[in-house]
Automatic annotation (TrEMBL):
Any one GO molecular-function label of the UniProt entry: nitrate transmembrane transporter activity
InterPro entries: MFS (IPR011701), MFS_dom (IPR020846), MFS_trans_sf (IPR036259), NO3_transporter (IPR044772), Sugar_transporter_CS (IPR005829)
Similarity comment: Belongs to the major facilitator superfamily. Nitrate/nitrite porter (TC 2.A.1.8) family.
Transmembrane segments annotated in the record for this chain: 26-47, 59-77, 89-108, 114-132, 153-177, 183-202, 240-265, 271-289, 310-328, 334-358, 365-386, 398-418
UniProt cross-references to Pfam families, sorted A to Z: MFS_1
UniProt keyword annotations, A-Z: Membrane, Nitrate assimilation, Transmembrane, Transmembrane helix
Subcellular location(s) per record: Membrane
Cellular component GO terms held in the UniProt record: membrane
GO BP term, pick one: nitrate assimilation
Identification of the protein by name: MFS transporter
Gene3D superfamilies reported for this sequence: MFS general substrate transporter like domains
Membrane topology, record value: Multi-pass membrane protein
Length: 436
């Protein structure tokens, strides 16, 4: 029988030894594949637009649909992590969502495509499980870094998708298929990968370092299940401050993942492949940028506590908002790419800092706090989607409005005391349940 134990105090990314590191790697890989399925259609939208005869307004509705379902799904999934366990929850989510990913090619109308995009969006709840699972596998000293690396490498799927899906599409074209068939067949690839990985995840991970929830049910009730965890999380104002913050960073990230290829294609007259590569570069920064945010947050936390982490988050959001506004005014593709990389760095670091704070809000409701905050990301994406749907404003104007909104959120976050209830849920006893 495999030896299990306490949360790790060190993150060795080159190690697969022990249930903690094996779960870490399988978790970020699962999130990577979920992102691949979630946004596999984004770089192909120029083809889909032509095939289905979509208008700008309809594309806006599709962008909103791709992230809207995730709002509710993340809250539900967060609660399931607290009660059912991350292992079962992740495996089931991947298996169920692989179906609409594989079968979206069956639709031939705007209405059908919209419904499938809504169904596929549920898979975005995978992020909550990723952050929950790394939170219970790593010690409080390193949990911010672990969460950021796992989330960042998973988010990398958004960048790789923009680069790889056009190549898969091109492969089917080379095999003799017409464009209207090739995009449909291309989506089968990520769907099959999700289905296969759901079985691997169930087989090779555990809910906690000490074992699965089912095995611990009689001996460790605190770590296994906390009744009313969603209510506990919802009553804490810090949860909602982080909800807003995540809407302003991750919400804009997935909006940009959806619109970037189309934006470069239409505004700078690039080819589909070049637009995909440029959009992919934005996502590719998750290889390191989100991790940098988590590492810096852990260091700031050790020196300045949770208040320091909160101020760091506010600063990064402010810089992100300014960067997006400047990006929107770019007149050449070179300037656009440079400013995109700049605001992307601040945005992805803010993602990492947000989830370096989440595990410390309440040890009894880690999944529910993570779910609510994660849902905030999708609420932000939905609101941003309405801007890109509007026929009265351009995409560039939409980015300017988004930049201003992010700056306002930064001001709110700066005023929140993330350390105000430390006397009973402080850093000293976070993740204590997983260490029993």
């Amino acid at each position: 029988m495999e030896t299990t134990g306490k949360p790790l105090e060190k993150l060795n990314i080159f190690s697969f030894k022990g249930v903690q590191m094996r779960t870490f790697h399988l978790t970020w890989m699962a999130f990577f594949l979920c992102f691949f399925g979630w946004f596999g259609l984004a770089p192909l939208m120029t083809i889909v637009k032509t095939d289905l005869g979509l208008t700008k307004s309809q594309i806006g509705n599709i962008i909103i649909a791709s992230v809207a379902a995730t709002v509710v799904a993340r809250i539900v999934i967060g609660k399931l992590c607290d009660s059912w366990g991350p292992r079962k929850t992740y495996s089931a989510l991947m298996a169920v969502c692989s179906v609409p990913v594989m079968t979206v090619g069956l639709v031939h109308s705007y209405e059908g495509f919209l419904l499938f995009r809504l169904a596929i969006g549920v898979i975005g709840a995978s992020f909550v499980i990723t952050q929950y699972h790394t939170s219970v596998m790593f010690d409080k000293k390193i949990v911010g870094t672990a969460n950021a690396v796992a989330g960042g490498w998973g988010n990398l799927g958004g960048g790789i998708t923009n680069m790889v899906m056009p190549l898969i599409f091109a492969g089917f074209i080379a095999a003799g298929y017409l464009p209207e068939s090739a995009w449909r067949l291309a989506m089968i690839v990520p769907g099959v990968m999700l289905l296969l990985f759901s079985f691997l995840y169930y087989r090779f991970t555990k809910d906690t370092p000490a074992g699965n929830f089912d095995d611990l049910a009689m001996t460790n009730k605190t770590a296994v299940q906390t009744k009313g965890s969603l209510g506990i999380a919802a009553k804490d104002p810090r949860t909602w401050a982080l909800f807003l913050a995540y809407g302003a960073c991750f919400g804009i990230e997935i909006t940009f993942d959806n619109i970037a290829a189309l934006y470069f294609f239409e505004n700078f007259d690039t080819s589909l492949a070049v637009a995909g590569i440029l959009a992919g570069t934005f996502g590719f920064m998750n290889l390191f940028a989100r991790a940098v945010g988590g590492i810096v947050a852990d260091k700031v936390g050790r020196k300045f506590g949770m208040i320091g982490k909160g101020k760091l988050l506010a600063l990064l959001l402010a810089l992100e908002g300014i960067g997006i506004a400047v990006f929107a005014q770019s007149s050449t593709i070179v300037v656009a790419v440079i400013t995109m990389l700049a605001f992307a760095m601040f945005l992805k670091m803010a993602n990492g800092v947000t989830y370096a704070i989440v595990p410390f809000v309440n040890q009894k409701a880690i999944g529910s706090v993570s779910g609510i905050v994660g849902a905030g990301g999708n609420v932000g994406a939905v609101l941003a989607g309405f801007l890109f749907k509007s026929s009265s404003i351009s995409y560039s104007q939409a980015f300017v409005y988004i930049g201003v909104a992010i700056a306002c959120v930064a001001a709110i976050v700066a005023l929140v005391n993330f350390d105000k209830t430390r006397q009973h849920i402080g850093e000293a006893n976070v993740l204590e349940a997983a260490e029993i």
